[in-house]
Specification:
This protein is of the alpha/beta class and 360 residues long. It is 29% helix and 24% strand. The chain has helices at residues 11-27, 43-51, 62-70, 88-94, 103-116, 139-151, 174-191, 206-210, 225-229, 341-349; strands at residues 6-10, 31-35, 57-59, 77-79, 97-100, 120-125, 155-161, 197-199, 220-223, 231-232, 237-238, 247-260, 283-289, 301-303, 309-313, 318-321, 334-339, 354-358. Strands 1, 12, 13, 14, 15, 16, 17 and 18 form an eight-stranded mixed sheet that branches. The chain has an eight-stranded parallel sheet with strand order 8-7-6-5-4-3-2-9. A two-stranded antiparallel ribbon has the order 10-11. It is elongated, with a radius of gyration of 23 Å. Bound molecules: pyridoxal-5'-phosphate. Pyridoxal-5'-phosphate binds at residues 35, 37, 60, 80, 99, 163, 202-203, 222-226.
């Protein structure tokens, strides 16, 4: 059962999503890794992704990777966020392959490898226009990175990668991923060997496989959202061959009362500094649920019941209009919601939300 609020996760559906994505990628000669950061590196979710056939696991947080390793998961672990200089020793001990963009990081990783008698693989991130991480692909930057890699004794460059659809919202395309291939070949020439991995993004890149516009040569994707939620925020779509009902957020009713739909008094700002606007719908039946911004992103949840409308939330309270709900709600009842990526992330990291695993 679990306590409230809780996030119920259907592991069988995540496993099936992972398997569908892995097979689609395989049909295009691409290996798919599972990205666990949206669920805070949850070990059951990570295991379901591996059971679905993921070639490796990626997370943005070293802490999550360390936990998954300690839990005994056997796979290749990829650190998705550029390593911090202050965590380099732990990176080489817990991570198999890091995404990097700074020549200085290569040197730090190499020194840490020497000190601990280990090897480490890196993928050089290339910015093809989204303006998050990556070298800016000029010959000077490529050459500088190649120089650092050539000087390293224990750090090996296995490939290049890119990130799209994150900061700038840039969609992957045959042009920008084609550019990645070209930069990879140029870097390989400086290094004197062919790169093995061309890592072409995350969930939003699946669309290119579906419509057969993925440039040949891209051979790896790092997939989170599609496996976890069956959606693609950047591409603004639900992915038709995947499950969207993988998770349910459950919150408990602590007040049910008829109240006016417009506050009474002079409106200042709400608890977060925003000036609220209200439409006057007269007196309405409203419920307060014991969940708030400390638990979830209220803008990212969708009620599963018809006739429930989210009006707003403070740190600890969610206000919903239940006038049109078909049954009488009382305290102790619960309401259920779907979550988007932001709401899932918030719920998964909140210490107040219990994550409950379910299997059909
Ligand atoms: C989060 C992340 C991914 C996964 O993105 P999704 O859109 O969830 O598939 C892939 N690569 C990097 C570098 C990331 O940070």
């Amino acid at each position: 059962m679990g306590s409230n609020p809780k996030l119920k996760v259907r592991l069988d559906k995540i496993r099936e999503n992972a398997s569908q994505v892995v097979n689609l990628c395989k049909s295009a000669g691409i290996e798919a890794g599972g990205v666990t950061k949206g669920m805070c590196g949850n070990v059951s979710v990570a295991r379901a992704m591996l059971e679905g056939g993921c070639a490796f696991l990626g997370d943005s947080r070293l802490k999550n990777i360390a936990t998954l390793r300690r839990e005994g998961l056997k796979t290749t672990f990829m650190l998705l966020r550029l390593p911090m200089a202050s965590e380099i020793a732990e990176v080489v001990s817990y991570v198999d392959v890091s995404l990097i963009s700074m020549p200085e990081t290569v040197k730090l990783l190499d020194d840490a490898c020497m000190a601990s008698d280990r090897n480490h693989d890196v993928i050089v991130m290339v910015d093809v226009g989204d303006l998050r991480e990556g070298i800016w692909p000029t010959s000077a930057e490529i050459e500088e990175m190649a120089k650092a890699l050539r000087a390293s004794r224990r750090v090996r460059c296995v490939g290049v990668g890119t990130n799209v659809g994150c900061f700038g919202g840039v969609l992957p395309s045959s042009e920008n991923l084609g550019h990645l291939l070209k930069i990879g070949h140029e870097l390989g020439e400086y290094l004197g060997y062919e790169l093995r991995v061309y890592s072409g993004g995350g969930t939003s890149s699946l669309a290119l496989i579906e419509d057969h516009t993925m440039p040949s040569g891209i051979n790896q994707l790092r997939i989170g959202e599609a496996m976890l939620l069956g959606s693609d925020i950047t591409g603004r779509r639900l992915i038709p061959y995947l499950h969207q009902d993988t998770m349910t957020l459950v919150a408990e009713v602590i007040e049910v009362r008829r109240k006016p739909s417009v506050p009474i008094g002079i409106i200042g700002a709400d608890a977060f500094g925003n000036v609220p606007v209200f439409a006057d719908k007269g007196i309405r039946l409203r419920a307060i649920l014991a969940i708030g911004r400390q638990d979830v992103k209220p803008e990212g949840i969708t009620p599963l019941n018809n006739g429930v409308y989210v009006l707003g939330a403070s740190s600890d309270h969610l206000i919903v209009d239940v006038e049109e709900l078909g049954y009488k709600l009382t305290i102790g009842d619960t309401l259920a919601f779907r979550v988007d990526y932001g709401a899932m992330l918030a719920a998964a990291v909140s210490p107040y939300v219990e994550v409950v695993m379910e299997e059909r």
